[in-house]
Design brief:
alpha/beta
């Protein structure tokens, strides 16, 4: 574990880019986060300028590694998919781009992966050994896998084919809303089937459910008839920033 005590996390989303300095020991923000709207033309150079602006806003983190989330698959710092940002991102070495923009050592990782790191260190999965699966229920289904505290990056379990369908087209919270399903219908008919398949593939020790709908977890999680313990994420909208900062601090080579 790194001896660093403070890190900077920046969370890039389709609508906003936000960042804050993080106390690595507690997962708490050391200052109020700064948020900038994502530019309509979210090309790499435009986003890099905002990342630079946010990093300069927190001079107390000068020299500290910066963790940056991206809404897509990121392999060794290189963006492979970009669903919610400009397609020009695909193939870009985001780690090199952001390192030049900020002057900091940088780690770039998928946004769901960052959230899982945060929940594992300081949230709903803290102290849990073995296999932890995090799913974020929203427009689609994001996933992240942590094994004995180590992240297995870029899983895409929301795209499993189940009963002839891409899973997220049947079980996401957006689908629930679009089809007018009650929480009971959604949980017992859609989520139940999804989580049964996933747990048979992975045999997780814990499933953590995030995404905006997790604030209503008491309305649907108790209805799931699965063998794996399942809990709501606890860090909410801070998880991306916290997890990014932790991941960067815990990476030897950034």
């Amino acid at each position: 574990m790194s001896q660093l005590t403070t890190g900077l996390g920046i969370d890039i989303g389709g609508s906003g880019i936000k960042g804050a300095p993080v106390d690595l020991a507690t997962g708490e923000f050391l200052k109020e986060r700064k948020k900038v709207l994502t530019p309509e033309r979210s090309a790499p150079t435009a986003v890099a300028e905002i990342v630079h602006e946010i990093s300069e806003h927190f001079p107390e983190t000068a020299g500290a590694p910066v963790g940056i989330t991206f809404p897509g698959v990121v392999q060794q710092g290189v963006v492979r998919t970009s669903a919610n940002l400009d397609k020009d991102w695909i193939g870009v070495d985001a780690r090199a781009l952001f390192r030049e923009a900020t002057g900091h050592p940088v780690r770039v990782l998928n946004d769901a992966d960052a959230a899982a790191v945060a929940e594992t260190r300081h949230g709903a999965a803290a102290g849990v050994s073995g296999v932890v699966l995090m799913t974020t229920l929203g427009t689609g289904i994001g996933s992240a896998l942590v094994v004995d505290g180590l992240l297995v990056p870029n899983t895409e379990f929301g795209h499993l084919e189940i009963d002839g369908h891409d899973a997220e087209t049947r079980a996401s919270s957006a689908t629930k809303d679009e089809e007018g399903l009650s929480y009971r219908e959604w949980a017992t008919e859609r989520l139940h089937r999804y989580y049964r398949v996933v747990e048979d593939l992975l045999w997780p020790d814990l499933i953590v459910v995030g995404g905006g709908v997790s604030r209503d977890a008491d309305k649907f999680l108790p209805l799931l008839d699965i063998r794996t313990p399942v809990v709501a994420a606890s860090l909410r909208n801070t998880a991306g920033i916290v997890g990014a900062a932790l991941a960067a601090a815990e990476t030897e080579t950034v």
